[in-house]
Every structure is written in C-alpha cells, then in structure tokens.
Design brief:
32% of the residues lie in helices and 26% in strands. With 336 residues, it is of the alpha+beta class. Among the domains are: 70 residues, SH3 type barrels (Roll), CATH 2.30.30; 126 residues, PDZ domain (Pdz3 Domain, Roll). The strands form three sheets. Strands 8, 9, 10, 11, 12, 13 and 14 form a seven-stranded mixed sheet that branches. Strands 1-7-6-5 form a four-stranded mixed sheet, with no helix packed on it. It has a three-stranded antiparallel sheet with strand order 2-3-4. The longest helix is centred in the first third of the chain and has 26 residues. It is elongated, with a radius of gyration of 49 Å.
C-alpha cells in the first residue's frame, strides 16, 4: 500500500465522517450550535469558579511546633557527621547507683500511734480562751464523750476530736470528764470547768426564805403524751443524731445549762431551725428540763447513765418546768 492509497482512504473516511456530522447537525447546523454554546457556557463557569477561589482569603497553614530533641548528643553532631565525645569519667564520678562497698542508710519509718487520753488533765492549767462549758451530754471512762460549749452566745455540741469555734482550727476537744473538759490548744492541754469559781461566787446569794422558795416552785401540774406516728418519727430521728452525729443536734434544739444559787438545776431548751418539729414533741421555748426517765439533770455525772439508757429506751419521760407549771412530757420512741 502506497501513500496515494492511504490518502484516498483518509479522504474517503473524512468525507463519510463529515457527511454524518452534517446529517446529525440538521438543517442550518442547529444541533452543532447548541453543542458549541453548551461548551462555551461550561468553560465560562469554570473560569468564574477559579476567579472566585482566587479572591477568597486563605487561612494560614499552621506548622507543628518544633519538637525538642530527646537526645542532645545527636544535636551536637557536626556537619561532617562527627559526634561530640561523651565524658565517661564525669558520669562515673556522679555515682548514680552509689559507691562500691558503701552501706545504704535507710530512714526510719515513723509509726503514728493514737494519743493516750489517760491523765492528760494532770498539770493542765485553766484555759483563758473565751469559751464556756455549759453542759456535759455524755462521757465514758476513757474520756470520750460530748459537751456543750458556748462561744459568742452560740452553743453547740462537740465530741472528742472536734475543732472548737476559736483559734482558727487549732483548738480541739481532747477529753470529757464529769465536771470539766480538756482542750488541746495548739499542742497544750488546758482545762475548762463546768462551774468556774468566779461564777460560783457571783451567783451565791443569801439563802431564800421558805416563802420565796414556795413562790419559786411550780404550783400546777399537767401531763402531756406524744405517741402519734409523726412524733415517734421525729423523736427517733433526734436519737439517731445524738449517737451518730451529735453536732447536728445544735441545728434542731438549743440547749443551755440553768443554774440557781450556783447549783445546776437543769437545761433550758429552745427550738433550732425547725420550730414546728420542736413543738410537735410537746416542748415550748424556754422549757426547763430537770430530769429524763427519772434521772435528775442537776449532776453532770448522770450524763453517762442517761446516755446509755436512751440508746435502747422505748420512751422518754421529761420532767419540765414551764413557768409555774410542772409538765410531765412523755414521748414514745417505739422500735427502730
């Protein structure tokens, strides 16, 4: 096959292709114009998109921070590839693992033992802190118990180990005795007595006449019993607070020691945050409680007996002086 034959075939094939294109384009080339117009529109859209992207601001590329070399010796490598020599003699002189033949000295382990409360009241001086011991609620032979302490005209119940409201947390109740408590004032044991000698002298008066004594004693008597479900529930709740969280009792009832002629007579009670619960049990503000379940409250040492008795008692019988009336208030505790 020579070049002439090849040219003839190419011309023949081009003629056939062009004939088909013109036949497809239709009269006056309408289809061909439509295709060209579509291609032109597509080209314009692409060009417009490139212009828009070129005008939009591009966020700067954040490069990761340089990571410090973990091996500084590699950083000291010179351009020629030589590594800086390591001073082995200096490393050996540090004795990182100790010197050969040297005994290892171990620090003794300090074991903290509980502080013995026995006899800490001996030699303790009277405290000069502005706090007052107004009552002993409970105590044990080991010196553990609870006491009512007043500061800034506010009384609160404290257990051994509790911080007292003075001294910025540096003063704690250390021991509870029958007529006094021992406090830990920044490492120094001090005494606070239930009745200080100065108070006794100030409160002692001339013996009252029989007429005055009769006038001061209650002239009427009445009995009140609280055995409904609500009163039982409140009474059991108060008892649980006494044994589980004695400090929380100060939120519901305010207790203050009452003395007459220098002698403890009983404890006055007033409502705390919930006056309705206080009155639900039959109490009124200012009531003077003189005994509980037959145990008189004129002797602080009776607090231990009362504390043990009330743990399992099914009822609490309060002898209350309310003005000129002696009230026997019985509150049923029921079973837990």
């Amino acid at each position: 096959m020579n070049w002439e034959q090849i040219n003839r075939r190419l011309e023949h094939g081009f003629d056939r292709f062009w004939t088909r294109v013109m036949a497809w384009a239709g009269p006056d080339g309408v289809r061909l114009r439509r295709v060209l117009i579509a291609l032109a529109v597509l080209w314009l859209l692409l060009a417009l998109a490139k212009i828009v992207w070129a005008l939009l601001p591009v966020a700067p590329t954040l490069e990761p921070p340089a990571v410090p070399l973990l091996n500084p010796l590699t950083a000291q490598t010179s351009a020629s590839g030589a590594v800086a020599p390591v001073a082995v003699d200096k490393l050996l002189a540090w004795h990182l693992f100790g010197k050969p033949g040297q005994a290892v000295t171990r620090e003794p382990v300090v074991v903290r033992r509980p502080v013995d409360q026995g006899g800490i009241e001996r030699g303790a001086k009277e405290s000069k802190l502005n706090i007052t011991l107004t009552g002993i609620v409970a105590m044990s032979d080991e010196g553990f118990g609870m006491a009512i302490i007043e500061h800034s005209r506010k009384q609160q119940l404290y257990a051994v180990g509790d911080e007292l409201p003075i001294g910025g947390g540096q003063v704690k109740l250390a021991k509870v005795l029958a007529d006094r408590v021992v406090i830990d004032n920044r490492g120094t044991y001090e005494l606070i007595r239930l009745f200080e000698q100065g108070d006794l002298v100030a409160t002692v008066r001339e013996p009252a006449s029989k007429t005055e004594e009769l006038a001061q004693q209650p002239t009427r008597a009445m009995s009140v019993k609280r055995d409904d479900a609500v009163s039982k529930a409140i009474a059991r709740q108060y008892r649980q607070r006494l044994y589980n969280d004695p400090q929380s009792l100060a939120e519901v009832v305010k207790i203050s020691a009452h003395r007459e002629q220098g002698q403890l007579r009983g404890y006055r009670v007033r409502p705390g945050n919930d006056k309705q619960q206080f009155e639900q049990l039959g109490f009124k503000a200012g009531d003077l409680v003189t005994s509980v379940n037959g145990i008189p409250l004129d002797n602080p040492s009776n607090a231990v007996q009362l504390y043990q008795l009330m743990r399992t008692a099914s009822e609490a019988v309060f002898e209350v002086e309310r003005g000129s009336t002696l009230v026997t208030l019985t509150v049923m505790l029921g079973n837990e």
